[in-house]
Amino acid sequence: MTEATEKDYDGVLLRRHPAEGNGVVAEIVLNRAEAMNAISTATAAAIRDVARSLAEDAAVRAVVVSSAPPAVEGKNHAFCVGVDLKERNEMTDADLVATRPAFRRTWAAFGALPMPVIAAVSGYALGGGCELALGCDLIVADDGAVFGLPEVSVGVIPGGGGTQTLARRVGMNRAADLIFTARRIDADEADRFGMIDRRVAGTSTARAAALELAQHIARNSPVGVRNAKHALRVGADLPLAAGLDVEDGAWRATAFSADRAEGVRAFVEKRKPVWP
Q: Are residues 105 and 99 in contact, defined by beta-carbon separation less than 8 angstroms?
């Protein structure tokens, strides 16, 4: 297996890890440790650029969103503490209006990718950082994770999808509790609420666990996994009958693919499939 490669964007690293068998696991690293991985306008654009580069890449089997470790040894890890408020403080109302569409595309970028996206949360996931994680398909968090949507405490509301994605994960009442109070919750409470999908022991351990999960996903049919994500994402908010129609279309797109033929053949021959 060859070594991982790395490309540096503005505040974001893109690593490509060889997947078992074939294909790639991509890792998007939020890389502004000196600012606790806060999202500036430039970083938001970099996230969109990285997502755009991955969207049409057939080699990518799964994506992990992780974060750079603390810039100073001994400081708390931060997955992402949200938008860069120092930058926002210099913006006019016109600036906020002008940048709003681009930031909305940033928050939606991970969910819109055709392959599964896993957030690896160590440390603080606050505001827009929490919303980035909520926009992923799966959240892996370690014991050091802290989640919060503190926007109402600074005079705004969650604007990166948080009012919608959090309610869909934990229910309306629990989402209201967290949003109205602006309070932070630790990994224990997030786990009880159903906010995270996998909990791992220790601190700064979420990245390794998320990469392991991504490698597990990468062993499966890329056509099947992508079509399953499409059916889940598109059908989730539809009436059941309409959702079943979405599933049927995804099934047809998979059932007559070369992956399906190879998967059945490999099962009969008692070997690992080699996905075409």
A: no
**Residue (of 152, 212, 144, 140) closest to 182 by Cα position:** 152
Tokens representing residue 87 in the block: 């930058």
* Torsion from C-alpha of 76, 208, 134, 14, nearest 10 degrees: 90
**How do residues 221-237 score in pLDDT, each as one tens digit?**
999 999 999 999 999 99
> Nearest Cα to 63, choosing from 10, 136, 132, 122?
136
**Which residue, among 167, 109, 136, has the nearest Cα to 229 in the 3D structure?**
136
Q: In what order do the strands lie in the sheet with 5-8?
A: 5-8, 12-18, 24-30, 60-67, 117-121, 138-142, 198-200
Residue 169 in tokens: 């994960």
pLDDT at residue 74 tops 90: no
Cα separation of 142 and 203, whole Å? 6
Which two structure tokens, joined as six digits, stand for 260?
């399906």
Distance CA(143)–CA(28), nearest Å, equals 21
Gap between the Cα atoms of 169 and 180, Å rounded: 17
Given this model, what pLDDT does residue 2 score?
A: 63
Find the helix or strand (DSSP H, E) in which 134 lies: helix 128-134
Residue closest to 83 by CA, chosen among 112, 110, 43, 51: 43
Spatial separation of the C-alpha atoms in residues 196 and 133, rounded to whole Å:
9
Q: For 178-207, what is each residue's pLDDT tens digit?
A: 999 999 999 999 999 999 999 999 999 999
Contact assessment for residue 67 and residue 28, using Cβ atoms and an 8 Å cutoff: no
- Going by C-alpha positions, the residue among 208, 214, 227, 207 that lies closest to residue 18 is 214
- Residue showing tokens 């969103």: 65
